Amino acid sequence: MVNKISIIGAGRVGESVAQILAIKKLTECIMLIGRNEQRTKGIALDIQETASAHQFDAKLTGSNDISNIKNSNIVIITAGSPRKPGMDRADVLAINLKIIDQIMDGVIKYAPDAYVIVVSNPVDVLTYYANQKSNWPRNRIMGQAGILDSMRMSSFIAMETDYSINDIQAMVLGGHGDTMVPLPRFTTVSGISIEHLLDRATIDKIIQRTRDGGAEILNLKQKSSAYDAPGAAVSIMVEAIVHNKHRLLPCITMLEGEYGQSDIAIGVPVVLGKNGIEKIVELDFNTEEQKAFDTSAQVIKGLIEEI
What we know:
- The chain has about 300 residues and is of the alpha/beta class.
- The chain has 2 domains: about 1-145, 3-Layer(aba) Sandwich (Rossmann fold), CATH 3.40.50; about 145-305, L-2-Hydroxyisocaproate Dehydrogenase, Chain A, domain 2, CATH 3.90.110.
- It is built from 10 helices and 14 strands.
- The chain has a 6-stranded parallel sheet with strand order 3-2-1-4-5-6, sandwiched between helices.
- Helix 1 packs across helix 9 (about 230-240).
- The radius of gyration is 19 Å and the shape is globular.
- The two termini are about 35 Å apart.
């Protein structure tokens, strides 16, 4: 358990993250920062009142003053304009870039020793920008996407096959968008690659549904994008850091030559522990996998050029 975790962004994702972190007993204090102070305080109080049901002792506070993130061990950024039906994650880049710029000013000033997890979209580009603006070591600022995409792929495999979700481990790398790179060869059921268990048509169907996972929920809900699954994905990252689990997870990080890429933030397998991103694991891609990863990287680089 750490002393303090701050969540900047009191929307549905921020609220979901706060609730899950409290339930998992990962911190003594959760500071929720939102634009509307009254609403943010209401969210914090609502979660606080679940303490007896979930048996947690964390203290939750809501505020609109970013200086209250002071002394945070971990800062999670969920603030930003959400997608609406028909929008791509890149469509909100200009708006959310301004938001992340202001937020990082506050993080650098008030929580200079924190680890930062970026959730806001387009998460690859915003993670890159946060790293560039802070000039901190790359192990300290990371983006959440691959875990969520892998969770979705695992769910779709279970739904398609009726295998237990407990035995399924999916691996999705690359950018968080249409060019994400689901990897069937590295996706297993009890250690057996799905390429040995499913026909190509079924695998292709699962891959496409994984790529469309966020849009599918957005189109069904209409008035909100996903928040429960993203909240759970963030909690996995926080838990790995807080409990020094050394988990091998797909996360967005800056590359410095790994996978043939530099000056980019993109999803790759990393070891996540008390020092944040402790290691980048390079997989031996085949020609098709490398091509898909490079294509995804080029899309991200195109967006970075717009900054």
